[in-house]
């Protein structure tokens, strides 16, 4: 068995297991507003060694790798991220891989239909699949086969929830608990994908879903506003700042309004946030008078809280018992998850729990990858599913330090 | 790692902005005593004869016997509607109420202090014989009315900036609101009342400023629950104000008429610093179902950090010029300009608020503050709209689960964040529309900022406002309204002289000033609360879309005209002024008519320098109102022509022109009366049927005399009254443009198939003085009387143009009766002639052989009439009426042309306006309208056989 994807906290360490270029196949992309997520499949026995690749991955992208051992070969599913603004690096990366076969079967595969026509096609989703289609065509001669974003998110999530035993977990008060979900009792659930914006999707079955809600206040807002307010250079830096902040400096709490007392009549304690950034109103302070840490913290709270609330309310509206959060905003960040969890807990009066996914950021890319299956390449995913079930067993003990 | 403490504070919530604080003065014991005294004086003690001699409205006095003494009540006997002067000239006259009641309520928020107070004023007694007679005649004293919690007066809505709380304190002090509201004249004589007044308060400001109020005014603050206040304030407004709620889509306001019986449950979203989403199920029954901490405080707080704006309004104003696309990531940005139509997202939908700030190498200073403000505003408004819809949708689910048939009907948004800001409202509306897939509509409230203060006001047990109904409120806009838009403002100006000098200074300042400059010395009023004057220029003022909040006049004596077929759907105005072309036209008409009107008004006051000064001030004030309405037609609520015309009359009264056409009316009455005898002889020589035709022709012909019509004013200079009258009548070529005369005739005289119909009582809504009443309507009245129909002449309560008033009618009738036995007998029977007084009191009906001719006032002082708000005596007179005759353009065309009634109605007018003629009847100026409509559904109260 191969070792498993890094846990969230270690993502930045780039435990990237490179793969032999010859064996790379089935690459899929999710090109979002801020990030490009890439999933590809490799097989072969080459050892990781590629210095050249590292330079791309250094730039604010995180990687995680799921691997699987199949038919005696080391077969791996790779998960990579690039910033959308640095799409050239992504293109260079693909180019460097010499993905001969792109969406087609790798040499070890069995099924050989339509090889020729599949040669230069890769599955892609996200808005960028449309926006950058010409770029890919021009630079790589690749045709992006656009797959609907929501379908991909759902397919990716369904796959992970079914294939990986300990994909989902709750996070409360710093404690992470994996949740075993019975495959037969998976549906319906609410999938909340927190990317630049937020989509809320009611999932009723393998390919049955509806986007029931969403909000423009998402990861892009956190990062965009945060950048303006703190001059951070990266999303992760901003997240890190928020860890050290105290939101009470800037948020107006119930106690601030009610002279330190609760407004218990409507169930609000004095420490409840009455108005995010509300204190910035009255104080004679400028932006520079606030610690960036505190600003980042308030911002994170505001956005996480809001997402948690809207998600829960939508779950309530449709009577959904599970709310699963994915998307790159979360990044396994403890405080983010905690805030979302608390919002769900608060609004549901303890009835509902927020669930998070280990592969949170790759739902769309994975879903696009799964889409090859529809074209007849069923085995890989099926086999991968089987394999990954075993892998998952090992995950439990490796994530304790989260 | 997060710990428990942290966990606690992320709970959301919201709270309306700083919280509400209401202050109010309970009427002290002394004033209670006075109420009781007044009440006794009104009726219980006095015998019937004394009652008649007493000023007025006996019925209310009669009912007061049953009132509980524990409730302060006003003596409404003698109540009369008056002009809209701010201070010394009350709208409602309660001559028998000996003392003022005032209540004050405050809502002290983080940025604004909202103040609601009630005032009532002493007033000169109205000694009107006609009213006593009509009461006796119509038996109003025995009329079984519901007993009002009697309270008439005015409700004022005033805002101050919290930062300038001293202005608020000064204002309260200058109005003596902390003493129970005695005005400055009376409190001095009675000596200061040093008893501590208790004022209820709600929200955070109550704590913060409690000591200040205690120190400065000796007021003790008592806290009222914030949510309670919001809800009761909203409930009240939605029930009491006809066009309180409106939708706002793509910059367009539409007022919504709500059925107060079909209001609950609804969702109230109060956007303060945070947001509360409250489900309201009824009076005092509500639950805070949701909320969010992303609210007005977030907008302002984040906005302040990002843009360095100094005030909330500055930030809002910035957003006005912003372009959010520079910062927000749109669906099109992600999809390369394409829509994501599969899930209903267009390219311009915001995918991620502030999402573009990610990818560009820009610092905060590289963005325009305007764009930042707009992005922020959209983000927050949109989020609130969404949260509200979700709450509504959840309610639908819960209702469904609980087998409740009715879910939330509407979503209302209030709170300081909105501030009548068009873009905010549009964004919220859009979000609600979008997320509900068009199933829900956001509604906003004209008094949005005053929910809490009003709720606090209502929390006083003894305000008596609960029982007032929508038709008993009249909202009027003080002179300063046009200049302040919806901005923060202090009190209306006080006496006439202040008003005039204010107007004059305004003019001196030139047109660049749009906000008034305080005229009174600082420290005496709250006038300093005005916004900084802003430049007008060509650009739209950012506050242009804001709505004005007027003074709410509470007039318990008003009633809905009982003969309206369907009061719920009744709309008085025929022409829709929301059509901008129509609006422009009428503004032009009114502006052009202004110099002539000013001349008349000044002449009516003797042409003195003082009168000229007032005339100029009037012209400026009314012009300013017109300009304001051109800028924002909805500024004063739903605008109809009737309102516009009434506004003009109110402005005249505001500058003490009580009857600009007095001398003209007198002259024309005399001239017409002089020729009446000839006319009556001519009529009497005809057979019945041709006489009826001649009478209707006469009404139409005489209706040409109208000072409200520019065309007719020109005509006036070309001949004498009787010449014009005869010429005009002779030119009546049937068929008229609208000609139901034959139907009316058949109704009167019968035909082969139908029996003649004898009307029991006819209400004649008369129009102008002079020929119109004397040569037109009186002869028609006489004919009806001759046929055994009781006739009630319905005249204006207050002068408007040259319209004949109820006060003037008895004299005209008396004069006419000198030439006509029929009129004399009927007038005697109706108590209009002095000789008949004794008979009236003894046994009104049996004492005379004739059916009576009576006069009632209609309750308004406008050339038009809104039949939802008429005087109680007209309502009483309508009880037995089975024929209504509406005469003249104002009452039969501009308003009520499409009104349907429970009894037969005849609408007769000559169209003296080309545009109206073209629009309404597809005809020309001087075309005639004679529209007859049989009762829409036979009313049980009418006995036809």
3D architecture notes:
The complex is a heterodimer of chains A (402) and B (945). By secondary structure, chain A is α/β, with parallel strands linked by helices. Chain A is 38% helix and 23% strand. Chain A has helices spanning 51-58, 87-97, 115-118, 128-131, 133-140, 149-163, 219-230, 235-243, 254-257, 279-282, 292-318, 334-347, 363-374, 378-398, and strands at 25-31, 35-44, 63-70, 73-83, 121-125, 143-146, 168-172, 175-178, 189-194, 198-205, 208-215, 252-253, 273-275, 322-326, 353-357. In chain A, the strands form three sheets. Chain A has a seven-stranded mixed beta sheet with strand order 8-7-15-14-9-10-11, sandwiched between helices. A six-stranded mixed beta sheet of chain A has the order 3-4-2-1-5-6, with helices on both faces. Chain A has a two-stranded antiparallel ribbon with strand order 12-13. The model of chain A is unreliable at 1-22, 45-73, 102-117 and 388-402 (pLDDT under 50). Chain B has 33 helices and 25 strands. In chain B, the strands form six sheets. In chain B, strands 9-8-16-15-10-11-12 form a seven-stranded mixed beta sheet, sandwiched between helices. A seven-stranded mixed beta sheet of chain B has the order 19-25-24-23-20-21-22, sandwiched between helices. The radius of gyration of chain B is 30 Å and the shape is elongated. Chains A and B meet through helix 4, strand 11, helix 7, strand 12 and helix 9 of A and helix 1, strand 12, helix 10, helix 12 and strand 14 of B.
């Amino acid at each position: 068995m191969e070792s498993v994807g890094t846990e969230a906290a270690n993502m930045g360490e780039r435990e990237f297991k490179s793969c032999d270029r010859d064996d790379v196949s089935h690459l899929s992309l999710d090109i979002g507003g801020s990030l490009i997520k890439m999933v590809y499949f490799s097989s072969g026995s080459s050892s990781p060694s590629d210095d050249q690749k590292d330079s791309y991955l250094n730039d604010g992208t995180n990687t995680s790798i799921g691997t699987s051992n199949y038919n005696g070969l080391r077969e791996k599913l790779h998960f990579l991220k690039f910033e959308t603004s640095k799409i050239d690096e992504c293109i260079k990366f693909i180019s460097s891989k010499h993905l001969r076969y792109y969406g087609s079967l790798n040499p070890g595969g069995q099924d050989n239909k339509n090889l020729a026509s599949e040669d230069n096609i890769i599955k892609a989703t996200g808005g960028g699949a449309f926006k950058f289609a010409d770029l890919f065509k021009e630079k790589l001669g690749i045709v992006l086969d656009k797959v609907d974003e929501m379908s991909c998110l759902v397919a990716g999530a369904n796959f992970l929830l079914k294939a990986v035993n300990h994909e989902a977990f709750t996070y409360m008060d710093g404690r992470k608990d994996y949740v075993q979900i019975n495959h037969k009792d998976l549906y319906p659930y609410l999938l909340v994908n927190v990317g630049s914006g937020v989509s809320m999707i009611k999932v009723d079955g393998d390919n049955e879903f509806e986007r029931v809600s969403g909000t423009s206040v998402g990861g892009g807002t956190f990062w965009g506003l945060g950048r303006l307010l703190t001059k951070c250079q990266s999303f992760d830096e901003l997240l890190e700042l928020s860890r050290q902040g105290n939101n009470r400096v800037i948020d107006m709490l119930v106690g601030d309004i009610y002279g330190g007392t609760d407004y218990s009549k409507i169930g609000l304690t004095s420490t409840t946030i009455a108005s995010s950034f509300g204190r910035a109103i009255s104080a004679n302070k400028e932006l520079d008078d606030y610690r960036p840490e505190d600003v980042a913290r308030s911002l994170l709270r505001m956005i996480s809280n809001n997402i948690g609330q809207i998600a829960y309310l939508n779950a309530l509206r449709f009577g959904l018992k599970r709310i699963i959060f994915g998307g790159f905003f979360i990044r396994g960040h403890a405080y983010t998850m905690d805030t979302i969890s608390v919002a769900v807990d608060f609004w549901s009066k303890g009835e509902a729990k927020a669930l998070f996914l280990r592969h949170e950021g790759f739902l769309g890319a994975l879903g696009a990858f799964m889409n090859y299956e529809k074209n007849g390449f069923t085995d890989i995913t099926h086999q991968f599913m089987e394999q990954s079930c075993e892998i998952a067993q090992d995950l439990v003990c490796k994530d304790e330090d989260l | 790692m997060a710990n428990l403490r942290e966990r606690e504070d992320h709970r959301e919530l919201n709270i309306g902005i700083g919280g509400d604080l209401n202050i109010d003065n309970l009427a002290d014991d002394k004033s209670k005593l006075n109420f009781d005294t007044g009440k006794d004086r009104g009726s219980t003690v006095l015998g019937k004869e004394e009652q008649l001699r007493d000023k007025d409205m006996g019925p209310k006095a009669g009912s007061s016997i049953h009132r509980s003494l524990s409730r302060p009540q006003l003596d409404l006997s003698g109540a009369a509607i008056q002009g809209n002067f701010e201070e010394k000239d009350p709208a409602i006259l309660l001559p028998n109420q000996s003392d003022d009641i005032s209540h004050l309520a405050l809502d002290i928020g983080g940025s604004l202090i909202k103040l609601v107070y009630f005032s009532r004023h002493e007033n000169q007694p109205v000694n009107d014989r006609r009213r006593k007679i009509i009461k006796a005649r119509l038996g109003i004293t025995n009329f079984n009315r519901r007993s009002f919690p009697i309270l008439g007066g005015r409700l004022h809505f005033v805002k101050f900036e919290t930062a300038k709380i001293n202005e608020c304190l000064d204002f309260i002090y200058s109005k003596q609101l902390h003493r129970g509201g005695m005005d400055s004249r009376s409190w001095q004589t009675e000596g200061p009342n040093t008893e501590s007044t208790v004022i209820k308060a709600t929200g955070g400001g109550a704590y913060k400023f409690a000591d200040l109020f205690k120190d400065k005014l000796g007021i003790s603050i008592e806290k009222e629950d914030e949510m309670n206040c919001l809800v009761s304030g909203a409930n009240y407004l939605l029930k009491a104000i006809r066009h309180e709620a409106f939708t706002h889509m793509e910059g367009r306001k539409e007022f919504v008429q709500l059925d107060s019986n079909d209001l609950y449950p609804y969702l109230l979203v109060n956007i303060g610093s945070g947001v509360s989403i409250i489900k309201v199920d009824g009076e005092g029954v509500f639950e805070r179902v949701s909320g969010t901490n992303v609210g007005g405080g977030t907008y302002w707080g984040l906005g302040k950090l990002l843009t360095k704006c100094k005030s909330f309004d500055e930030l809002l104003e910035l957003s006005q010029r912003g372009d959010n696309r520079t910062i927000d990531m749109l669906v099109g940005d992600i999809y390369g300009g394409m829509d994501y139509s599969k899930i209903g997202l267009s390219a311009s939908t915001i995918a991620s608020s502030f999402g573009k700030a990610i990818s560009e190498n820009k610092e905060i200073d590289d963005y325009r503050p305007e764009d930042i403000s707009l992005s922020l505003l959209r983000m927050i408004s949109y989020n609130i709209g969404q949260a509200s819809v979700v709450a509504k949708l959840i309610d639908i689910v819960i209702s469904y689960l609980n087998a409740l048939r009715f879910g939330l009907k509407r979503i209302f948004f209030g709170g300081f964040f909105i501030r009548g800001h068009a873009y905010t409202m549009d964004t919220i509306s859009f979000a609600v529309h979008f997320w509900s897939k068009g199933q829900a509509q956001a509604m906003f409230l004209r008094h949005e900022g005053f929910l809490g203060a009003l709720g606090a006001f209502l929390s006083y047990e003894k305000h008596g406002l609960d029982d007032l109904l929508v038709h008993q409120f009249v909202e009027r806009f003080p002179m300063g309204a046009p200049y302040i838009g919806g901005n923060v403002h202090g009190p209306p100006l006080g006496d006439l002289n202040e008003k005039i000098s204010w107007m004059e200074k305004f003019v001196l300042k030139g047109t660049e000033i749009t906000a008034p400059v305080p005229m009174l010395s600082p420290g005496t009023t709250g006038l300093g609360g005005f916004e900084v004057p802003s430049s007008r220029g060509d650009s739209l003022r950012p506050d242009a879309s804001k709505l004005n909040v007027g003074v709410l006049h509470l007039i318990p004596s008003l009633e809905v005209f009982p003969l309206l077929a369907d009061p719920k759907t009744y709309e008085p105005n025929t022409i829709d002024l929301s059509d901008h072309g129509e609006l422009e036209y009428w503004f032009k008409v009114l502006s052009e008519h202004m110099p002539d009107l000013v001349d008349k008004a000044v002449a009516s006051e003797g042409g003195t320098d003082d009168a000229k000064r007032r005339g100029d001030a009037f012209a400026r004030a009314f012009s300013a109102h017109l300009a304001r309405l051109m800028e924002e037609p909805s500024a004063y609520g739903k605008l109809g022509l009737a309102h516009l015309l009434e506004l003009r009359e109110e402005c005249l009264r505001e500058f003490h022109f009580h009857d600009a056409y007095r001398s003209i009316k007198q002259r024309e009455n005399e001239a017409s009366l002089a020729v009446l005898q000839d006319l009556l002889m001519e009529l009497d020589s005809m057979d019945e049927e041709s006489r009826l035709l001649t009478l209707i022709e006469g009404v139409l012909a005489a209706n040409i005399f109208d000072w409200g019509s520019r065309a007719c004013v020109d005509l006036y200079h070309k001949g004498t009254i009787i010449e014009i009258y005869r010429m005009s009548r002779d030119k009546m070529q049937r068929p008229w443009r609208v000609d139901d005369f034959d139907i009316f005739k058949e109704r009167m005289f019968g035909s082969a198939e139908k029996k003649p119909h004898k009307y029991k009582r006819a209400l004649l809504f008369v129009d102008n003085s002079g020929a119109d009443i004397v040569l037109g309507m009186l002869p028609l009245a006489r004919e009806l009387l001759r046929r055994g129909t009781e006739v009630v002449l319905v005249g204006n309560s207050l002068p408007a143009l040259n319209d004949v008033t109820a006060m003037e009618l008895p004299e005209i009738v008396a004069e006419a009766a000198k030439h006509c036995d029929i009129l004399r007998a009927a007038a005697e029977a109706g108590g209009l002639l002095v000789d008949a007084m004794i008979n009236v009191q003894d046994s009104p009906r049996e004492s005379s052989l004739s059916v009576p001719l009576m006069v009632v006032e209609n309750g308004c002082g406008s050339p038009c009439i809104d039949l939802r708000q008429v005087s109680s005596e007209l309502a009483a007179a309508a009880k037995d009426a089975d024929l209504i005759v509406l005469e003249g353009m104002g009452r039969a065309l501009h308003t009520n042309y499409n009104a349907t009634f429970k009894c037969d109605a005849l609408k007769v007018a000559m169209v003296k306006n080309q545009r109206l003629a073209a629009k309404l009847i597809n005809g020309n100026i001087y075309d005639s309208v004679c529209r007859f409509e049989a009762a829409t559904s036979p009313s049980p109260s009418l006995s036809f056989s």
